[in-house]
Description:
By secondary structure, this protein is mostly beta strands. It has a domain at 23-78: Single Sheet (Rubrerythrin, domain 2), CATH 2.20.28. The chain contains 1 helix and 4 strands. The chain has one helix at residues 13-22; strands spanning 23-33, 39-43, 53-55, 66-78. A 4-stranded antiparallel β-sheet has the order 2-1-4-3. Strand 1 and strand 2 (39-43) form a beta hairpin.
Amino acid sequence: MSEEPQLPPIPAIGDVLDRKDDMKEFKYTLYECLECGERNTRDFIEGDFVFKIFDGKKCENCNSNKYIIKKIYAEFKKSKKGKKKK
């Protein structure tokens, strides 16, 4: 007969939940110039949505100020503060 496969141990749910305490969510917007196609990112602003066309600062390449939002994403980064003690 064959042996049972050895699976790695399942982590305790408390370990997974504690990781979230040190992480902070940062939201970003990826936008593109309508004239030349140059892409940049900025911090997410309330009211941003994909395919929104907006006026922004002048583009460095073509001096246009029309942009379109291509993508909105979030990153989780460790907070600078230490882990909170209970």
